[in-house]
Amino acid sequence: MKRALLFFLALSLCFSSVLLPAKAEGYQKYSRVELGIFDTEITLIGYCRSQQEFNEIADGAMAHLKELNRIFDAYNSYAGLNNLWYINRYADDAPVEVPSPLFDLLLWCKEKWDEGWRQNNIALGAVLSIWHDYRTAGLDHPQTASLPPMEELQAAYLHTDFDQVILDTEKQTVYFADPEISLDIGAVAKGYAADLVGDYLEEKMPSFLLSLGGNIRAGISPQDGRVNWGVSIQDPDDPAGMLDVLYLHSLSVVTSGDYWRYYVVDGKRYHHIIDPDTLMPADYIQAVTVVCESGALADYLTTALFVMPYEEGRALIDSLSGVEALWSLKDGTIYMTDGLAAMTRSHGASSRE
Ligand code: AMP
Ligand code: MG
What we know:
With 353 residues, the protein is of the alpha+beta class. The protein is built from ten helices and 15 strands. The two termini are 42 Å apart.
């Protein structure tokens, strides 16, 4: 019996030395931080053989992100580029041909919509732009900050049916059958971009961590002998503090929270994720983190889960394989799936039920 145990221990040690990544000789950790792309702080960490090699790869990643930022930009036009601003301006006149990353993203969202996912609706632009204008005015002039009139929101809501956005996969065109519809891809664009740039990095520098604000994509294990990257989850009550740390590799981590973007009216905070049922900021949870392979799906899901009661969101996550989540409720309760608890530094002890 004892011998069998010893054999088992020897075997598992042997396995763990096979499974644990060896420290890769000659690799060093490098990092780059850039501001101004996707309106957020971009951090890239990676293991490379030299600073020069890292610089070239990081330059490539940032150039790719800048180009995606231009294509996904809803507020600015660029000569010769049929970006999101261009679609919103001209796709009601005639079908507009758009670059692949944007067309593919729209198609991906349309497929989700057709599957019946309605909480995250990228065709909610008419409503979201009203909130955007009131929030911007409220941040510029806090003394006169006000809420959008409900009649105005309801009138805009009549023009938010994603079925009125016609995507032609052969010609790669977008056409608005409803001229007043407009697209807002804020709920998924960063996760989608992190995937595209992540694919490039996987080829050039597979051991990397890329962070676009609340969107993180982790490559294979760090090349310093550790199995996992550590990714901290902010404490929604004190975003400078930390709720827990997730240990993972080859996965995406995305968080949506009511503390990211908001303005204050009569002492009350109004954040940026709008519930299509009430046309007001969603009032169910404080923050939600999703972990899965695809950054686009993680980003899409965080926004969708934010607009659902915890129980409904939990049922949705439990129905999906390879997707884990953590919810912070407003009363301080923290729920997490077992798979996510297993990734935490606290082994799930930070859940507060
Ligand atoms: P996220 O931080 O990923 O949850 O995305 C929030 C952004 O998505 C907002 O700033 C809006 O641009 C957009 N958005 C807000 N509410 C919704 C919604 N219900 N469906 C789709 N997009 C939304
Ligand atoms: Mg999102």
